[in-house]
Amino acid sequence: MSSFRGFLWSFVFLLTAAIYSSIPTYLIFNYWAWLNTLRFDGEPIYTLLLFVLFLWILALIITLIYIVAMIRAIIQRKNEDSGIPKGVYRFGFVSTIVIIAYMVVWFILFNKIAFFSMLPPPL
Fold first, then answer.
1. How far apart are CA 117 and CA 27, in angstroms?
2. All structural domains of the chain with their residue ranges
3. What does pTM read for this prediction?
């Protein structure tokens, strides 16, 4: 793997880690109070809260995987084989492109930044 490709992949992995850490964290902090107000037959819906918390923790684990892949891409940039599985490359590249394209289309259509313009309903 050439030195340039190693830095390029580390940049893609950095974008992927930033996306998978910032968007879920922003949404969980903004929607947590609203999720606590949801009721079914007068009882709070703890299952939904636990599921959202599980998804947030899962997103943070994916973030850690891509931070490690970013560091490894920089360290192994001069070796022929990077040691990073092809699935990590493909998922990181495709998911980053899809989310960035979604954010660009959202901005063109609504003139707002996708995900970060979302607000919970008033309490």
1. 10
2. 3-110
3. 0.80
